Amino acid sequence: KQQNEFPGLLPDRIFGWNGNPEENKPNPWPVNETMKQFNLIKEDILVIDDLKPGITMAINTGIDSAGVGWSQSHQIPEIKADLSGICTYYFDEVIDLENLIFKGINIL
Fold it and tell me: What region, left, alpha or beta, does residue 62 occupy, with left being phi > 0 and alpha being psi -120 to 50 degrees?
């Protein structure tokens, strides 16, 4: 979908790998910092990642996670099995993640 199709759904904060290396995933700091900054509880959060460190971060903080595997590298059975075996949800298609996130929400 085009970015302007859903006004207001731009990220409020993005944590990258350019800060303190000890605060990078799989360290729980990004999740804990997000909870603190936005006054959230664990049930308010879904970690979405296509790599194991993000899913491990979610597991370490007790947060649900969605592993996403629609890239070429995720077509390798061992990679797919590894990631899908540790996350709460696993999706091969973008539409499946969209359905989980927007289930029952009329956004248009």
Answer: left
pLDDT the model gives residue 80: 86
Total Cβ atoms within 10 A of residue 83: 21
State pLDDT tens for residues 34-87: 999 999 999 999 999 999 999 999 999 999 999 998 877 667 888 888 899 999
Residue 85 CB neighbours (<10 A): 10
The two beta strands, 89-91 and 46-49, are unpaired
Which is it for strands 89-91 and 64-68: parallel, antiparallel or unpaired?
A: parallel
DSSP code for 45: -
Average per-residue pLDDT for the chain: 86
Cis peptide before 30 (omega within 30 of 0): no
Task: Determine contact, residues 67/55, Cβ cutoff 8 Å.
Answer: yes
Whole-angstrom distance, CA of residue 80 vs CA of residue 100:
19
Full-model pTM: 0.80
